[in-house]
Amino acid sequence: MVYRGLVSCRCHIGSTPFWSRWRHSSSLLHSSKFNSPLGTTLHAHYFKNGSLQILNLANYLLSLYIKSNNMNNAQKLFDEIPHRNNQTWTILISGFARTDSSSEVVFSLFREMQEKGAGPNQYALSSVLKCCSAGNNLPLGKAIHAWMLRNGVYGDVVLENSVLDLYLKCKNFEYGERFFGSMNERDIVSWNIMTGAYLRAGDAEKSLEMFRNLPHKDVVSWNTIIDGLMQCGYERCALEQLYCMVEYGTEFSAVTFSIALILASSLLLLELGRQLHLWVLKFGYSGDEFVRSSLIEMYCKCGRMDKASLVLKDAPQDFLRKQNTGLKSKAEIVSWSSMVSGYVWNGRYEDGLKCFRLMIRELVLVDIWTVTTVISACANAGIMDFGRQTHAYTQKNGHRLDAYFGSSLIDMYSKSGSLDDAWMIFRQINEPNVVLWTSMISGCAINGQGREAIHLFEGMLKQGIIPNEVTFLGVLNACSHVGLLEEGCRYFHVMKDAYCIDPGVEHCTSMVDLYGRAGQIIEAKNFIYENGISHLTSVWKSLLWSCHLHKNIEMGKWVSEMLLQVTPSDSGTYILLSNMCASNHKWDDAARVRSSMHQKGIKKQPGQSWIQLKDKIHSFYMGDRSHPQDEDIYSYLETLTGKLKEIGYSLDVKLVMQDVEEEQGEVLIGHHSEKLALIFGVINTYPGTPIRIMKNLRICTDCHNFIKYASQLLGRQIIVRDIHRFHHFKNGSCSCGDYW
C-alpha cells in the first residue's frame, strides 16, 4: 500500500504543470508526517525534473532531512542544489551542529560558506560557536567573535549568549566576565550560563552571588544552582536552595523532581524523599520515566528496597507495554539497574542476583551501560563473587571488552582486592586509553603497590597518553600510601604547571595526607592555608589522623578545634581526639572529650566488619554475640590468640579508650569486629583459601598486628579493605609495609 501510494504520488506530480506541481509538493510535505521513503522519492523526482532550482522547495526538503536526522541524504541534497543562499548554508550547518557529528564538519562548511561569498547570519554563527564551545576550540571561537566585531554584526541576545557560553566553557573567565558586563541585553539564559560556569569551576560562592543577583528566577535557574551545588559536593547548600525554591513559589518541573530526589538520596534523607514522592503523585509526574528512576534510586540509597520495588511495579501501562514489546528506554534500564545496585548497596546480594536475572528475562538483553552500573556497585561494596558472575554474563552474551567496560572491571577487581584479575583485564585491551590506564594506576595505589602505580604512570606518558585529573589523583594516592613525599610533591607541581590541571578537593586531601604521614605536620598545615582549603572537612580529618599517628597531641587538639568549626557534629573528630589522649594515658582529657560528645548528643559510628560466604554477607560488631556461631567463634579466637602470643604477638592495650586494668583492656580490644570476621572466615572455609574482610573504619594497630601473625601461623592470605585502602596479609607481613 505504501509503495502504491508513492507511485500514485509520483504519477500525480508528473502530470501537473510545474508551478502547480511545486505548490502541491510543498503542501504534501507540510501536511504529511515526513518519512525517509517519501523524502527520498520526492528528492529523486525533483532532481530529475530540475525542481531543485526552486530554492524554497529545496531548502524545505533539506530542513525535513535535518529534522529526521538523516544527515547523509541532507548532505547529498545540499551538494545537488545548484544555487544556494544563506538559508541553505544555515540549515545544513545548524543541522550538523545539533547532531553528534564531528565539529570539523561544521567548521569546514562554515569556511566553505564564507569562501562562496555567503555571509553567515546569526543562526549560522550561533551554531558554529556552539561547536567551538563543545570542542573547546577557543582560537576559532575568538576569530569568529573578532569577525563579528569587524563586520558590525550585532546579533540578538541568543547570539551573544553563544559568545558568552564559548568563553566560559573554554574556561576563559576574564573574557567571559567582561563580555557579560558589556551585554546590552541579558535574558535569564545569560544569567544561567554565568551561574553554571562558576559551578563547573567549583566556585560555589560566586555562583550563589550570581544567582542571588538574578532579576527573575525561572525553574531552569533553580535547577541549575541546585544541581550544580550538588555536583560540586555542596549537598547541604543545595538543600537550602531547594527550600528557598519552594518559598519563592516556583513550580517544580520533572527535572526539578529528579534533581531533588537525587539530592535526597545523596544525603540519605528518607523523609524528604517521601514528601517529594507525594508531590510527584499530586502533580502528575509519576508517569515520567526519569522521575520514576530517581524515586527508585532514592529509596534504594535510603535502604527502603520494598518501596523501590513498589515504584518499579507500579509503572504506568505504557511502560509495561514497552516491556512486553521488547522496547526499552534509557530510563527504564536505569530503573532496573538501580534496583540491582540498591540490593548490592544494602547487602542483599542474593536478592540482587535474582533481580539481575529477572532483568535479563524481562528486558531480553541487558546493555553494557547497565552491566557497568552493576559492576560499579559491586566495586563500591567490594563484593567480588557477584561481580564475577556479572562479568561471566557479559562474556556469555558476547559484550565487547572495550576500554570503558574494561576500566569498570579493573575497578571492581581492584576494590575487591584481586589485583591479579585486574591486571588480566588490563592486558586484554590492545589499545588502552587514559581511562583504562587510570583505573589500573588507582587499583595499584589502593592495594599498596605504590611504586608499581608510578611505574605504570611513567609508562603511560611514554605511550603519549595525556593524563587527566583522576590519573593524577591515583598517582598522588600511590605516593601517599608508600610515603614517597618528594615524588608526590613533584607530580603535584607537574599536574598544575605542565598539564594546567587545577587541584581539586581530593588532590589537596591527598597532599595533606602525604605530608602528614611523613611526619611533616607543619608543612601539611601550611599547605592547607596556602591553597585556601581550610573550609574543607577532609583535609582537617587527614591532618588529625597524622597527629594521632605521630602522637602530636597539642597539634591534634588545635586541628580538632578547626575541624569542629567546619563540622561541629562529626563524631569521628571527637573519637580520634579521645583516642589520641587515651593512647598517651591522658585519661582526664579523653574523658572530657567523651563527655562533651555525650552532652551534645553525638553518637559514635560503630565499627563493623563483614565477610561474604557464597551469596550471604555476615556482619560483626565489637563484642558481637548475635551470630549463630558465636560460641565457636569466641572459642577459636581465644585459642588462636594464645598461639599467636607464642610466636611474638601481644595485644596493644594502649589502644583502649578507657582507663582500665590491663587484663580488662585486653578483653575490650581482643573482640574487635575484624577479628571476629576473620575467625568466622577461618572456621568456614577450606585451608589455603584467601579470606576477604571489609571494614567501615580504619583498621587499628592491634588488629593489624593480629592479622599479620595470623597469616603467618595459618598460612593464609588475608585481605582487609578498610575505609582508606587494602591490606594484603601474607606470611606475616602486610602490603602496606606497616605504613598506613
Automatic annotation (TrEMBL):
Q: Where are the PPR repeats?
A: 85-120, 187-221, 332-362, 433-467, 570-604
* The name this protein goes by in its record: DYW domain-containing protein
Record-linked Pfam families: DYW_deaminase, E_motif, PPR, PPR_2
Query: Could you state one GO biological process linked to this protein?
Result: RNA modification
What are the entry keywords?
A: Repeat
Q: Where is the DYW domain?
A: 648-740
Molecular function per GO: RNA binding; zinc ion binding
Q: Into which family does the record put it?
A: Belongs to the PPR family. PCMP-H subfamily.
**What PANTHER family does the database record attribute to this sequence?**
PENTATRICOPEPTIDE REPEAT-CONTAINING PROTEIN
Could you tell me the superkingdom of the organism this chain comes from? Answer: Eukaryota
InterPro entries (alphabetical): DYW_dom, E_motif, PPR_At4g14850-like_plant, PPR_rpt, TPR-like_helical_dom_sf
Query: Gene3D superfamilies, alphabetically?
Result: Tetratricopeptide repeat domain
